[in-house]
Amino acid sequence: MKKIKIVTIGVYGFDETGFFDALRQAGVDTFCDIRNRRGVRGATYAFANSKRLQARLAELGIRYIYRKDLGPTKAVREKQAAADKAMKTAKRKRTELGEAFIEAYHTECLAGFEPKSLLDELKSDARVVALFCVETAPEACHRSLVADKLAKTFNLEVEDILP
Questions:
Q1: pLDDT > 70? residue 26
Q2: Buried/exposed code over 126-154 (b: 16+ C-beta within 10 A; e: otherwise)
Q3: pTM summary value
């Protein structure tokens, strides 16, 4: 197996220049979008909407892959929304995932996820793969769960890119 490094990144907290600079500085050559819905509300993060994001990544020579199977379903997201409401935490201020979300995500998404399928999708020269969603803190986002599964399965290094 080729040796790759996994990085995780969310869009919140970055401006457009800072986001793409962070990807370049990390040496990302493959960008894996694991959002269920590939849009972000508001002008501030419009650069992370799918078509604009893919166009900019292409300009930078970064390959884009989309894995909808790794995006939490509406039912799973609702578990986190309930936890956020109970804790009186705004989505963008969340610092960790709720237990109900983690359990549901493992059952609905990760149980059927074969990590080798993601590696098989990578080009042979892939070295640094970014797992992307929106939350600022990796601990508050499902990307940390995917990164953890990949790291444990293949003994990979994971680095979180923060704004």
A1: yes
A2: bebbbbbbbbbbbebbbbbbbbebbeeeb
A3: 0.94
